[in-house]
Design a protein that fits this description.
Blueprint (H helix, E strand, L loop, with lengths): L2 E10 L2 E11 L4 E5 L6 H9 L6 E6 L2 E2 L5 H7 L1 E3 L12 H12 L4 H14 L15 H13 L5 E5 L7 H15 L4 E5 L3 H5 L4 E6 L2 E6 L1 H5 L2 H8 L4
């Protein structure tokens, strides 16, 4: 397995965000995560990325124990992430945002990084905005930039945090096509999303979290049809 999480726990006082959680992601696999607000989804990403330390359990990536590794070490090992609210360097250009990721996230020379960043911008439809300030972009363009910055670090695993949130139907369809293209390059994905139809269009497996616990896992459409999932996540009596 590329990512192997075992008995992961994290609490904030009396609030349990990860409750003895087990989770795996294979190479080239796309796994979706859904759950109500407060289910512990973003906390899980922070634990994987290293911006939070777990209370217990282990995180292994590529066969190595990274449970206590620094965020930059995890980035260099091949974990890239996006944020629910895009966090670009707004006073840098789009191209410069990617260059930071490529040079510092994967230790490339500036010449190598420039070529790689140009290819990524073209793939994500941002090449014509390369010299625009990141702060001037639309929401869809910022979402694309968020993915592009993560891809600039050459991830083996891409953590997508509600990347479709706030987009129109048309914009969401464009984003799904882009994510499919990224997936076809062999990048594994762990994707948190409230826009369920976007997940169903891409992922191989779906996991449902509630109060830090995994309550369902399996084929996406089967999971969505589960009475327990409909009751807890969608709020439908079943």
């Amino acid at each position: 397995m590329l990512l192997d999480i075992a008995a992961l726990s994290k609490s904030f006082g009396s609030i349990v965000a990860a409750d003895n959680l087990d989770l795996v992601v294979a190479a080239n696999e796309a796994v979706g995560i859904i759950g109500p607000n407060g289910a512990g989804k973003t906390t899980l990403f922070n634990l994987i990325a290293g911006t939070l330390a777990p209370g217990g359990g282990t995180i292994r990536f590529g066969g190595c124990d990274i449970t206590r590794a620094a965020p930059q070490t995890r980035c260099h090992s091949g974990i890239g992430r996006t944020h629910q609210i895009p966090q670009p360097f707004e006073k840098l250009t789009v191209f410069e945002n990617l260059l930071v990721g490529a040079v510092h996230g994967r230790s490339m020379s500036e010449r190598e990084a420039a070529r790689s960043c140009g290819e990524i911008l073209e793939r994500l439809g941002l090449l014509r905005h390369a010299n625009s300030l990141a702060g001037s972009l639309t929401l869809l363009q910022r979402k694309r930039l968020e993915m592009a910055r993560a891809l600039a670090t050459a991830p083996k695993l891409l953590l997508l945090d509600e990347i479709a949130g706030g987009l129109t139907e048309g914009e969401c369809a464009e984003l799904i096509a882009t994510i499919r293209d990224i997936r076809n390059t062999g990048v594994a994905m762990l994707w948190i999303e409230h826009v369920v139809h976007a997940l169903l269009a891409v992922v191989d497996r779906l996991i449902v979290l509630n109060f830090g616990r995994k309550i369902a896992e399996g084929a996406p459409r089967e999971v969505i049809r589960s009475p327990e999932v409909r009751q807890i996540y969608i709020g439908i009596e079943a």
